[in-house]
Amino acid sequence: MFRHSVVALIAILLWTGSILAADKELKCKLVKVDAKNSVLTVITEDGRTAKYSLNEGTRFIGPKGGVSDDGIRDDRLVKGAELTLVIAGNNRTVREIHLPERKVKRK
Questions:
Q1: pLDDT, tens digit, for every residue of 4-36?
Q2: Contact 44, 31 (CB under 8 A)
Q3: pTM
Q4: Domains of the chain, with CATH numbers?
């Protein structure tokens, strides 16, 4: 009986930890890109300004699912761009940036 209780307690702790560490999706507008320090400054849907760190594992994904090779230097990362960020469980690091479509330049 005691062994079953311990196993159940461990399972509950692992389940709770996985929920707390889950990635979060955040829709936002880009304010600034700091390529030197790999930091994005954004305004969230509720009007808060937030800074998020990027690392070598951050993926830049286009609107059709393709991965950008340009990374933080992608031409779609401009002020006012509407992005969707996938934030790691630590609430600081960006795992994925979903980029908008490229604007067509008219002559």
A1: 776 676 766 665 555 445 788 999 999 999 999
A2: no
A3: 0.74
A4: 23-98 (2.40.50.140)
